[in-house]
Amino acid sequence: MDVIALVQRFGKPDMFITMTYNPTWPEIKEHLWTTDETQNRPDLISRVFRAKVEELKTDISKRNIFGKIVAFMYTIEFQKRGLSHAHFLIILDNEYKLLTSEAYDGITSAELPETYLDKKLRSLVLKHIMHGPCGNLNPTNSCMKKNDLCKFNYPKSFAEQITKGLDSYPIYKRRNTREVVKVWEQYLDNSWVVPYNSFLLGKFNCHMNVKVFSDIKVVRYLYKYICKGHDKIAFYIHDNDTNKEIDEIKEYQFTRWVSPPEAAWRLFGFSISEMYPSIYHLQLHLRGQQFISFKGNTDINTIVNNPMIKKTMLTEFFQMNRSNKDAIKLNLLYKEFPKHFVWSTTDKTWTRRQ
């Protein structure tokens, strides 16, 4: 609900970025002992990945590499095999909204870069950005569904220019240059390129998927996707003694999968998610059903007869709209009220922001 509040206030997200940890980052390799392996150092993995996430956050929110932003959020996700992901959602200021195909092309690309233009970028695209392969080239790839189709719909169709698709995603420019490259023993073309941003890919040297959105319909799915949480399972364990009575309720367990990098991440106290701006929670209740708190040894008559205990954000919002000239003049909705007034938890009153 906090995330949806951002959309309600600032509009649909403009960009979605997924950054995946790279086990061959130099910052990791140079701190390993000769006999060490990356997967045996979840502490190192977590520290380096967090530093990368913080740098990406700074690029987006302070250096404004995509223009001025009004809101963003990110969540950290851990795969079962230990590869860490960071999912960023970005809402741009109205002045920097992506409204034209040229603006889309300036942010993201879904084509192989020309060798003569940027040899390093091309090598990074081949290393980190090519999808699969799947389909007939590799029917057992993890993205293949039961109907033998890729769940990400690769290979994509060619397109001479970026256009708005039937869903909330644009159809990215993927020209049929007839150029193919050998990746994982298969020959692939532009139809297999995952959308990326040249600057971020070159700087972070890892899988960096950058998507833009053309419609608000994607919001519900997208926020559900990045906030889905852990993989969970319910199970119980019993032996093969068929004569033994099994108490399924007693043996029932509800667990979650925690990989070593996630365990280290949480032990270090790193943030699993962050959002800007922060969300201010407003109290809601029915008439006469306020939430109250009191000490256990307080006399019940003192509690009931205390006029302050009946005051809440909601009751005082109504009171302000009856008696306060500024509130009456502004004619604000409840959700808009904190933008102009401050709630005092001590006095239980709203006062005008200075």
Task: Write out key terms for the chains shown.
Helitron helicase-like domain-containing protein, globular, alpha+beta, 354 residues, 2 domains, 12 helices, 13 strands, Helitron_helicase-like
Question: Topology, pairings included?
Answer:
Elements: H1 2-10, E1 15-20, H2 26-29, H3 42-61, E2 69-78, E3 84-92, H4 101-107, H5 119-129, E4 163-164, E5 170-171, E6 181-183, E7 186-188, H6 198-204, E8 208-212, H7 219-226, E9 232-235, H8 248-251, E10 253-256, H9 260-267, E11 273-276, H10 300-304, H11 313-323, H12 325-330, E12 341-344, E13 349-352
Antiparallel strand pairs: 1-3, 1-8, 2-3, 2-11, 4-5, 6-7, 9-10, 12-13
Helix pairs in contact: 3-9
Protein model, in words:
It is a single chain. This protein is an alpha+beta fold and 354 residues long. It folds into 2 domains: 2-229 and 257-276, no CATH class; 300-352, no CATH class. The chain has 12 helices and 13 strands. It has helices at 2-10, 26-29, 42-61, 101-107, 119-129, 198-204, 219-226, 248-251, 260-267, 300-304, 313-323, 325-330; strands at residues 15-20, 69-78, 84-92, 163-164, 170-171, 181-183, 186-188, 208-212, 232-235, 253-256, 273-276, 341-344, 349-352. The strands form 5 sheets. The chain has a 5-stranded antiparallel beta sheet, sandwiched between helices. Strands 4-5 form a two-stranded antiparallel sheet. Strands 6-7 form a two-stranded antiparallel ribbon. The radius of gyration is 26 Å and the shape is globular. The two termini are 29 Å apart.
